[in-house]
Amino acid sequence: MDKKYGVYICTGCGIGDVLDMEALVDVPDEEGVYNKTHPFLCGKEGLAMIQKDVDEGKVNAMVIGACSRRVNFDAFKFDNCIVERVNLREGVVWPHSREKYPALTEEQKDDEEHFDRIQMKAEDYIKMGMIRVEKVTLPTPYKTETFSRKILVLGGGITGISAALDAAKAGFEVTIVEKQPKLGGYAACMRSQMPVVEPFEELIPTVIADKLAELEKYPNIEVKTATEVARIAGQPGEFTVTFKKPGEKIPFDVPFPLPEEMTKDEKGEDLDAETLHAKFLEYNEGRVDILKLDPKGELYGAVVLAAGWRADKLEDEAYAHLGVNLPDVITNDEFERLAAKGKVVRPSDGKEAKSVVFVQSPGKDEDDADFPYCGSVTSQVALKQAKYIRNDYADGKAYIIYQHMRTPGLQENFYKSIQQDNGIFMTKGAVTGVSQKGDSLVVEAANTLLGKEIAIEADLVVLSAGMVPVTVDDPIVNLAYRQGPGFRDNDIFGGYADSNYICFPYETQRTGVYAAGTIRRAMTIEESMEDATGAALKAIQCIESAHRGVSVHPRSGDMTFPEFFMQRCTQCKRCTVECPFGALDDDEKGTPKINPTRCRRCGTCMGACPERIISFADYSIDSIGSQIKAIGVPSEDDFDEPPYRILALVCENDAYPALDMVGMNRMDYSPDVRIIPVRCLGSVNSIWIKDALAQGMDGVILIGCKHGDDYQCHFMKGSELAEVRANKMGDALASLALEEERVRFEEIAIDEYDKLPGLLSDFVEEIEGLGPNPFKGF
């Protein structure tokens, strides 16, 4: 591409009132660069001015100095043009007032000892924008060699059937794979479900029969019962799926990737390449239970994971006091299956069970006192099952002893109707023991709402077992990925198949595989059906995006993908190990093998690579590094007391929007800070930090999404990896005779924008306390 440059600067929204526009326009001093200003650049006339220059062939690489790139992002799109948005409004003019940082007088402009901090920042941003459009190229979409629009649904319960129906109605071919001999899942084992219409007082039959009947009307839905997925290889748009019958073994043929835990040493550090290869050979030697990648396997575009849940077993010794070994102490799951057969009876002798105690907690009187994997669904199940007793026996009695009773939304009406039933007794309390007394059971409870200990004689005791996602026991998807057959780091979510449950609730850590229903969290039938629709739509979005050669969430529509300069690859495995989404495998030689439609375009691999051989068309080590080098670093040769220079590398997902809100609210922070948004802090390569300090910048701060227990980094591991890398900068700083405090890592949520000015000011003050970077001026 023969680049023709243009710089367009908006003078509206106060930009022209604060900045010296004449000096700003003079920043690009190269010949042939079109420099123009306009009072309303995003307006009809301003856009027409730019479009005219594009149509006449004058410009195809432009810098637009105006509002944040998060504003009017659709307006400033021009075909076959590289566009760099320079944030002069929210990033320069709005957060820095002239009252605090006055403009230079005409006399001061001629005096080299005076400087305008706001103007200097704006001019740096224009220079940074210019160097970026010079360094990047227009991306071209990646297209797979083969492509399928078929959707694979794993699980033939209410969630899987609902997802299949929704996808089929949208015109897509669907295959349902169910391990059991028939469809229906747990919903087919239930007696009834919670009410879904006013007045929310009476139980209703399950909808599974209607769903199964509807399924038969769609010829574009194929059903495979008594079938498992043996292996899923490939990437969105071209997943190659091999099926097998339960228990069937297929000869091992293709090397299977090591589980991630085997790629680490005892300290959790990555193994070196030689040790890794030896373990790889040892792990795969003689294995026949790992399945052959069948080149004749069926092709699919995306996968909906709707494999469901199992009841927690409650066999731990911690539950011995609840009489778990007694024949008439059963779980809510066992009770539901029992009730589905007719009137509720005792398992031990088949006699009528007219007095039933529902135990919702193992006995602790604490906030976390519920059984594992319990929540609002198990609370609602207890209410529903108590209703069974009253429906079966006019003189039946149900007792619910709980620590927490959760009935969200309109189910509160059902809860209130249960409260009005004189045959159902509910109390908060801690069950201290369940024992056999002749032909009955005795349930003892303390700390009840009655203010005293109670003892209830019962025919049957029902324990509230939690809903455990099946991924706890089985990877289900059996992926042919280097990172293993299941979802990595699944223990963070307690086994649930989530990636980022706040921002992207259906995605998993594997692009193209979308979780729905109780594989994701405990849900009622109604919630699972709604969830299935969301997952089906995500699968469709993924297929259509992959077909166009663009990415899905979070960087939806991004045409770039990582490109490798393999001649310098040392096979260190860092990119494959640190990729949060398993986009990279190893080829037969052990070098990284990219699967572009798996890639989320976060750039974590780019940040991980010590050889810096990974780049994207419009985002690379060179493009960001060149922006850093374009920042002016005044020294004592320029001024008696030169201003400090702080580099801030901020995540575009939370930190950068938060900074925009700081500007919108006119909240001040030091204009000596230079902001560069990055795709994810995981993409930050340590060379950027070293170069910034080596050229004289006084400090570097990295600001990313929050991580930890909630694990809400948009790209899963980015912030965590960045913090680890920043903490390892100590040796590099020591080699430059610089203090460790000159590099800081911070995390911020998008709604914590009000904390950013103080956070930045504290860092600037700390840097000022350390004094100027000794490399300044060299």
From TrEMBL:
Could you say which cofactors this protein requires? FAD
Keywords attached to this entry = 4Fe-4S, FAD, Flavoprotein, Iron, Iron-sulfur, Metal-binding, Oxidoreductase
The UniProt entry, under InterPro entries, shows:
4Fe4S_Fe-S-bd, 4Fe4S_Fe_S_CS, FAD/NAD-bd_sf, HdrA-like, MvhD/FlpD
Report domain 4Fe-4S ferredoxin-type positions.
Answer: 560-589, 590-619
The keyword Iron belongs to this UniProt entry's keyword annotation: yes
Pfam families (alphabetical): FAD_oxidored, Fer4_9, FlpD
A Gene Ontology molecular function term for this protein is: 4 iron, 4 sulfur cluster binding
- Coiled-coil stretches: none
- Protein family according to the UniProt entry: Belongs to the HdrA family.
Q: What is this protein called?
A: QmoB
